[in-house]
C-alpha cells in the first residue's frame, strides 16, 4: 500500500515512521502530502533518497515530539543541545563547502568525547566529567528523537530534519566552522 493512499494524518505518521518515503508519483499525491504536512504543522523536505517531513518552524512556536510525550517551544535550544549538535555537525559534516546531508557516520564514543569537551569548555558549572557526559548522552537522545541525528547502533549521523535549514543558516554555520574544534584538536 502506498503511503499516499492513506487518509491525510496517516500520510505524515507513515512518513515519520519510515523516516524517508519515495516522492509522490502524481500531482494529486503531492497535494495530499502538502495538505497533510500543513495540517500537522510540518513541512516536506526533499532529501537524497526521497522525501521526509519535519517540523516547520515558520508555522508556529511549537514542535512536537510525541515519542517523548512533549511539545517544546521554538525558543533557543538549551546549551547542552547546542553543544552536542555542534559536535555532531563538526564530525559528520567534515567539509562545509559540500552539502550537509547525507554527511558521514561517526562512532558514538567520538561524538560523546567531543561534545563533552565542548560542554565542559562552554559551561563552568559542568565541572564533573560524568555530569557533562550524562548531559551529552541525553542530548543525543533528544536530538535523535527530534530528527536532527540518527543513531545506528554505535554510529551517529545527521538526521533529515537538518534538511529544513535555510541557506542563510548554513552560510552562518560555514562562517563559524573554524571555531568548532575537530576531534583531532582535543586528542
Secondary structure topology:
Layout lengths: L7 H11 L8 H13 L2 E6 L2 E6 L6 E4 L4 E4 L5 H14 L13 E2 H15 L6 H17 L3 E4 L2 E4 L8 H10 L6 H4 L1
Antiparallel strand pairs: 1-2, 3-4, 5-7, 6-7
Helix pairs in contact: 1-2, 3-4, 3-5, 4-5
Strand content is 15-25%
Number of domains: 2
Specify the structural class.
alpha+beta
**Distance separating the two termini:** 50 Å
* Biggest β-sheet description: 3 strands, antiparallel
- Shape descriptor reads elongated
Q: List the uncertain runs.
A: 57-76
Question: What is the strand tally?
Answer: 7
Strand numbers in spatial order across the main sheet: 5-7-6
Query: How many DSSP helices?
Result: 7
Task: Quote the average pLDDT.
Answer: 74
Taking all Cα atoms into account, the compactness measure Rg is 17 Å
Write down the secondary-structure element order: HHEEEEHEHHEEHH
Fraction of residues in helix = 40-55%
Molecular structure report:
Helix 1 packs across helix 2. The protein has 7 helices and 7 strands; from the N terminus they run ααββββαβααββαα. The chain is elongated. By secondary structure, it is α+β, with helices and mostly antiparallel strands. Helices cover 45% and strands 16% of the residues. The strands form 3 sheets. Strands 5-7-6 form a 3-stranded antiparallel sheet. The chain has a two-stranded antiparallel sheet with strand order 1-2. Strands 3-4 form a two-stranded antiparallel ribbon. The protein has 2 domains: 3-73, no CATH class; 79-186, no CATH class.
